[in-house]
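thread from #wetlab-drylab

HS: before we spend reagent money on co-crystallization trials with manganese (II) ion, can we at least see a predicted complex? here's what I'd submit
DV: go for it
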Amino acid sequence: MRDGNGSKQMNMNPVSSDRKMEEGIRFLGVRSFKEGKKKIDLQIRKADTIAISGHMTPDGDCIGSCLGLYNYIADNYPDKKVDIYLEPIPSKFSFLRYSDRIRQKKEKNRIYDLYFSMDCSDPERLRDFRPWFEEASFRICIDHHMTNQGFGDIAIVCPGASSASEVLWDLLDPDKVSRECAEAVYTGLVHDTGVFRHSNTTGKVMRIAGALIDKGVHSEKIINETFYEKTYRQNLVLGRALLESILILDRRMIFSVFTRKDFEFYRVDKEDLEGIVAQLMLTEGVEVALFLYQLEDRSFKVSLRSTDRVDVSRIASVYGGGGHKKAAGCTAPGSARDIVMSIASYVEDQLK
Ligand SMILES: [Mn+2]
């Protein structure tokens, strides 16, 4: 499989999704993927002690890229001491090999020869692990966030890539990727593309996914158990939110509200409400979906989703929030009714 790295190769045979990947890549300490690959291999060989960290509240891509790299080093450079530091991860990811080696405490006085930062838009987001990264003898940053300006001694940041796991894949030797390493990388792809549904799902992403499945990845298990599976309580509150949802603006906007009382009644917390707004958005004819849940101080956290016709990040920014054109969020004071009505008027303006 071509890894779409050399720009010469690009000009000879442009493939749209590879070009997307090439757009706006920020390199620090290297000039190309090819050079990056070589230098990273060299740094791993030179180092005796290596550490890997990702961003705070680690998600599927953060966990996948960190464990993918960990497994790759453990498989191919067996004489290295390599450690992985992440905040505690959800138990649904514990099937990934070496996830049991993830920890938060470091040996006293240990300074690493080489430290990797994965899926992290700036060093601040390494949170507690940041000082260990900063003091390491050599630092490598692998990421895909638009806002990442590049940090460390080598940085490879591809805003056009679906995930940090995709960037990592381009830096590995595919022949040396084990099934266990592939499972971690695949988990990262699945999560940051919303199971290959978001617009970042390029042809290249699908080709990588194919290569990973050829390595023996159990795709169905990873998708169902780490992405779709919900607890009984999560299903109850999803059902409740759908049952209570209301269509307004000529059925072009839908909203649902979850109050403090509901939190108490169902004995859930805000993490259990994930995915509700996305499900509301899948209602036929709807241009904007709104999900509001009440915070302890009685104000509301508002999640917004939209089709191409409405830019919800503009609406969220009115309330001091932000996000993307089709997915944004903010916090708003007042009653749920007033918030919904006021947002509806902004939506109406944009739909005119
Ligand atoms: Mn990511």
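DV: Residues 61, 119, 144, 163-164, 192 surround manganese (II) ion (CB under 6 Å).
HS: ok that's useful, forwarding to the group
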